[in-house]
């Protein structure tokens, strides 16, 4: 049986933010500049079946041109990318931050991630960020997160991290939440759990086929999947555990008053 989830690593594009239009609008400019042959949005989304930093050079058949194209695209992301958050996802992040260590692991540029998180006022709910312009391979970032116990530290909506001795993560205490097939596969390679989301680049059926445990249709499902359910005790069982309130000096007076009222009603 899997352990309780203690940490969640969110993908950014298509998971936390709406990217189907915003990312393609920028990549389309890169495609035209470098003549990559990735001429529509669906072809662009297919790149994310693999690591983007590998897929672009392979798609254009020229390693040097592909790397230059990625650099151009990352610069556009740094300067211009600012899509809206998925509706309701900010509340999900704030709710989870009180119980789980939250991180972002993304192919996007760190500057763009920071801008988006600041604008959404969730930056201080995110304990750690692993950006693509620093480490292109998400598997390395996930393994780094698992290997260093200091990452197991909550950050609950404030600049400071909790000052407690962290307990290292076991792989099945960590989950990746994502919208892409490649992320699901790479997370499973690292031994961590995976939840897909249906509102991003890849279809729910594709995410399940890649190995996602479940695919969320609504953001709130992330909370119900990650956090333990409420106690199932019945009302009667809980009531039996409650001690009666202590007797007060007023109770004998109130009891006599009630008896007098009852006698008066009988006399009438």
TrEMBL record:
**A GO molecular-function descriptor:** phosphoglycolate phosphatase activity
The GO biological-process annotations, alphabetized, read as: DNA repair
- Which organism was this protein described from? Methylocella silvestris
Pathway named in the protein's UniProt entry: Organic acid metabolism; glycolate biosynthesis; glycolate from 2-phosphoglycolate: step 1/1
Q: Which family does it belong to?
A: Belongs to the HAD-like hydrolase superfamily. CbbY/CbbZ/Gph/YieH family.
A single GO cellular-component term from the record reads: cytosol
Q: Which reaction does it catalyse?
A: 2-phosphoglycolate + H2O = glycolate + phosphate
- Which EC number applies? 3.1.3.18
The protein in question is named phosphoglycolate phosphatase
Under InterPro entries, the record lists: HAD-like_hydrolase_sf, HAD-like_sf, HAD_2, HAD_sf, PGP-like_dom2
Which parts of the sequence are annotated with region: Disordered? 227-255
